[in-house]
């Protein structure tokens, strides 16, 4: 019976735990590994001593994700070219939750990359899931007072870097369609009309597929580069899809996903283009991934002060 209860609790909260791990890591593959590690720790717990399963599981997941984030940081140091988060083909309800869509967008995940590991975990748990400070403190091994300071610092850091005048998914869809038409025809002027003057194009091939090794800045340079690729694109299948809660272009070759192009839209113009070609990062584009935000997981009652309720160590 205890095993059944542990399994039921884990399955119930699995989408939440994956979302937490993914937002901390920016990697779906690593998030899946974290969930495996969380499960292995969870089955060793006497669930009858756990008052509230959700925060307990979030604590395990956060700690496992933080350990993996530090390892991932070392891998990024030797990564060939720019490193971009792993794109996810998301379910329609993610786009409908405007707050969740913003937090899992490619643009926001890149902003989170600029935070220190603990700051990132605290920001995700507080700003995305609205967890109480005492629960976050238990997850990151800090005092509630320290977590409040970290959260304040992380909020200010993100606020200074998050997209200006960020577009809704619906507004992004309109900009994406205009962008799609322009690159399909190689229309340089059409591209200039939809690109922000300071637009940045970032490519991620991981040393496996050809991609720009350094970011390309400026509407003129980006427009000419994209227009030059229109002949190649004409031989490929290009479709619009919901990626990380926002519309994006998915390019297929012989039925297989070759490239995902996510856009950052600000004030109606494309200010960021993120082209992911590394095949190791495209494995989650074959099926929709369910993500959840604070609306589905409101704050839980305060944890009891028993050893089990305080969380895993």
What is the secondary structure topology, with strand pairs?
Layout: H1 2-25, H2 28-42, H3 53-77, H4 92-96, H5 98-104, H6 106-112, H7 117-128, H8 133-140, H9 144-159, H10 169-185, H11 188-194, E1 195-204, E2 216-217, H12 219-228, H13 230-233, E3 237-243, E4 246-253, E5 256-266, E6 269-276
User: Percentage of helical residues?
Assistant: 40-55%
What's the number of extended β-strand segments? 6
| Quaternary assembly | single chain
- Biggest sheet character: 6 strands, mixed
Number of helices: 13
Radius of gyration: 20 Å
Trace the largest sheet across and list its strands.
Answer: 2-1-6-5-4-3
Order of helices and strands: HHHHHHHHHHHEEHHEEEE
Pick out the low-confidence regions: 298-310
Strand content: 5-15%
Structural class: alpha+beta
Shape: elongated
User: What is the average per-residue confidence, as pLDDT, rounded to a whole number?
Assistant: 90
- Distance from N terminus to C terminus (CA atoms, Å) equals 24 Å
């Amino acid at each position: 019976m205890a095993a059944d209860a542990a399994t039921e609790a884990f399955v119930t909260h699995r989408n939440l735990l994956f979302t937490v791990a993914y937002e901390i890591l920016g990697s779906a593959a690593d998030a899946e590994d974290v969930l495996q590690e969380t499960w292995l720790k969870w089955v060793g717990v006497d669930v009858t001593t756990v008052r509230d399963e959700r925060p307990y599981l979030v604590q395990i997941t956060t700690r496992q994700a933080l350990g993996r984030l530090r390892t991932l940081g070392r891998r990024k140091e030797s990564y060939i070219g720019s490193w971009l988060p792993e794109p996810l083909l998301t379910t329609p309800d993610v786009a409908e939750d405007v707050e969740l869509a913003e937090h899992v967008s490619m643009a926001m995940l890149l902003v989170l990359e600029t935070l220190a590991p603990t700051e990132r975990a605290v920001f995700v748990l507080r700003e995305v899931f609205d967890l109480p400070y005492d629960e976050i403190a238990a997850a990151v091994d800090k005092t509630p007072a320290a977590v409040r300071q970290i959260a304040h610092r992380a909020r200010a850091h993100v606020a200074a870097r998050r997209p200006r005048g960020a577009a809704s998914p619906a507004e992004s869809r309109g900009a994406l369609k205009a962008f799609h038409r322009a690159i399909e025809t190689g229309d340089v002027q059409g591209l200039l009309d939809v690109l922000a003057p300071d637009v940045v194009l970032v490519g991620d091939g991981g040393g496996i597929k050809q991609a720009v090794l350094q970011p390309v800045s400026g509407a003129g340079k980006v427009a000419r580069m994209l227009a030059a690729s229109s002949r190649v694109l004409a031989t490929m299948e290009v479709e619009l899809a919901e990626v990380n809660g926002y519309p994006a272009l998915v390019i297929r070759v012989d039925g297989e996903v070759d490239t995902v192009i996510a856009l950052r839209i600000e004030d109606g113009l494309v200010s960021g283009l993120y082209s992911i070609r590394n095949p190791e990062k495209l494995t989650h584009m074959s099926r929709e991934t369910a993500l959840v935000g604070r609306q589905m997981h409101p704050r839980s009652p305060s944890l009891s002060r028993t050893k089990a309720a305080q969380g895993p160590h």
